[in-house]
Specification:
The chain is an alpha/beta fold and 374 residues long. It contains twelve helices and 20 strands. Helix 1 crosses helix 5 and helix 8 packs across helix 10. The radius of gyration is 22 Å and the shape is elongated.
């Protein structure tokens, strides 16, 4: 592991050594305007595999890429009007904009390596407001991965010491070069905004960015995101992304998703999308008459249960108690409850330690409106 103090080293030397390491498939730790990042050549599969081994990447946490400007980004992602507006307003800056990955070769005949984009075929793009990293990316001529330098689950990396204290010896051995700027200001990580659905979705927020473009409000201490679905497939994609976003909750405590809306609004379609994400191949049946349908899932290394519940006919506490819902809650479980408002007050005492996401469906013109409360 080579260490460069960038406060006392000529910038030409920093750039030269950084590019040499990146061309050789090495891993570089570097400062940004948010936290320290970890970067490799995003078009080099062996280098990306090295980074994924370093990060011990968990489900639901894809990488992103660092580019110099929107024109460079267009080689790797499809930039729609939503994304363009965000580039214009916020970049360079502490924002990651997610777009559909093009999965095509760039002007150098390279393409983004597997494991960088998400399994939904989306790719996050960063243009940092940090001159050194823009200069290195410009000189390198290829995208560099942009992910925090800490190992998964460790403290935010505002100094090299923050990074190293949480690493195993094996992880340390994977680092080729450290660009040390000393202690960074305690800024939040970048805001992450997904522009691939009908409405931009904030996946991670920062107080440094005011989201004037994004339909997001607060109700009490919970966040409300309003989305519009133009098809059953888009409703399924929204469901899958909600499950992915809460994957850590699922594996640690379990997750409850409550669905409300008139008949035909897409509640069962949402459940089918969740099941597809969980790799369930069985046909999802409406539990209107059975109250509860149970499905086993195995996704990567995690096995668990999806319970699909319908509370339409539950009209009393006695009827609710007979369902013994408390026995369904637990690690590696997802409960999707249709007509959730029927039992919201009854189930609340059971959910003290289990995260709850509610989705309200309604019709707006030809679209489905989904109000997601987390």
């Amino acid at each position: 592991m080579k260490h460069i103090d960038i406060t006392s080293t000529p910038i030409e030397e920093i750039i030269s050594q950084s590019i040499a390491v990146l061309h050789a498939g090495g891993l570089v730790l570097f400062p940004t305007e948010t936290t320290y990042g970890a970067g490799v050549d995003a078009t080099n599969q062996e280098a990306v595999n090295r980074l994924l081994s370093y990060k011990s990447r968990r489900e639901g946490k894809p990488l992103s890429i660092m580019v110099t400007d929107e024109e460079m980004a267009k080689q790797y992602v499809l930039i729609n009007e939503q994304a363009h507006a965000l580039y214009e307003q916020f970049l360079p800056g502490p924002v990651t904009v997610i777009s559909k990955s093009l999965d095509s070769v760039d002007k150098n005949g390279q393409r983004i390596a597997q494991g960088v984009a998400s399994e939904f075929g989306t790719l996050g793009v960063r243009i940092p407001d940090y001159d050194l990293m823009l200069a290195i990316t410009q000189a390198f001529g290829r995208p560099i991965t942009a992910t925090s330098a800490n190992a998964s689950g460790q403290r935010r990396p505002y100094s090299v010491a923050d990074i190293l204290v949480g690493l195993s010896e094996k992880q340390k051995s994977l680092i080729d070069l450290v660009l040390d700027a000393g202690e960074l200001p305690k800024n939040e990580p970048s805001t992450v905004i997904d522009t691939t659905l009908s409405t931009p979705v904030v996946l991670r927020t920062s107080d440094r960015v005011e989201h004037t473009q994004v339909s997001e409000t607060k109700t009490g201490d919970r966040k409300v995101t309003t989305l519009f679905s133009r098809s059953e497939q888009e409703t399924k994609e929204i469901a899958g992304r909600i499950v992915l976003k809460h994957w850590d909750d699922i594996t640690e405590t379990g997750l409850v998703i409550g669905l409300d809306g008139d008949l035909g609004m897409g509640k069962t379609i949402f459940t089918k999308g969740s099941a597809e994400f969980l790799k369930i191949e069985e046909i999802i049946k409406s539990p209107t008459y059975t109250y509860i349908e149970e499905y086993d899932f195995t996704r990567h290394q995690t096995s668990g249960k999806l319970y699909h519940l319908d509370m339409w006919k539950v009209e009393s506490q006695a009827e609710f108690e007979r369902l013994a819902i408390e026995t369904l809650l637990g690690t590696n479980t997802v409960l999707i409850i249709e007509w959730f408002s029927q039992v919201a007050e009854l189930i609340a005492p059971l959910l003290k330690n289990v995260p709850l996401v509610t989705v309200r469906f309604s019709q707006v013109g030809e679209d489905r409106k989904l109000e997601i409360i987390e």
